[in-house]
Write a structure and sequence with these properties.
Arc Repressor Mutant, subunit A, 10 strands, 235 residues, Jelly Rolls, alpha+beta, 9 helices, four-stranded antiparallel sheet, three-stranded antiparallel sheet
Amino acid sequence: MFALNRLGNQILERLPEADHQRMSAHMERVTPALGEVVAHPGTAPQWVYFPVSGVLSSMIVLEDGSTVEATTIGNEGMDGIYLLASPLANPYRVNVQVRGELIRVKAAAFRDALGHSPALSQLLTRYALVLIQRGAQNAACIQHHTIEERMCRWLLETAQRAGSDSFNLTQEFLSDMLGVRRQSVNLTARLLQKAGLIDYRRGELTILDRDGLEESSCECFRVTRGIYERSMNLP
């Protein structure tokens, strides 16, 4: 059982103390390997994950096996929102995007917590709306913004979620996240490195100039952050 230090996940931090106490008995800290799949599409979920310093990616898998990122989940969120409509299978492949600490709870225990905590239910309903708004913003971003702008946004959001300006990242993985060719990722990364915004070598990326990266990013980084802050504050 964990001490009530709120654990570093923003959804857990927003829970009333009694609700947090009730669920903390079922929490377990894990640190899965980079790229590890923690949930498979079309299968009943076994665990709910609350990232702390790790980052998860929910991937849409097409019939030909290609993938594109549906959403990224860091310490602002959780994987398992579909349990609000139980029984419902997970629609995505969820894998570890940035290695770090996650808190997991058995799906059955989480369903029980939902039944006893109106605050948790309200938080997850609000988070579901955030994900819908984020998906719409992502669609607009893909349609209207350049690969460079999108990559800057993605790197800023990943650093924010991981709580660090340095993290492991392969070009292949980033191309899957952005839904573009690896060659495009390589060229864009070189441009950002030449501009002194990032350092990227041997699969390790470091943000050198956060302000410059924000200037080069599209408006979506600022917009999605604002949507989250407005939506997730309970009365």
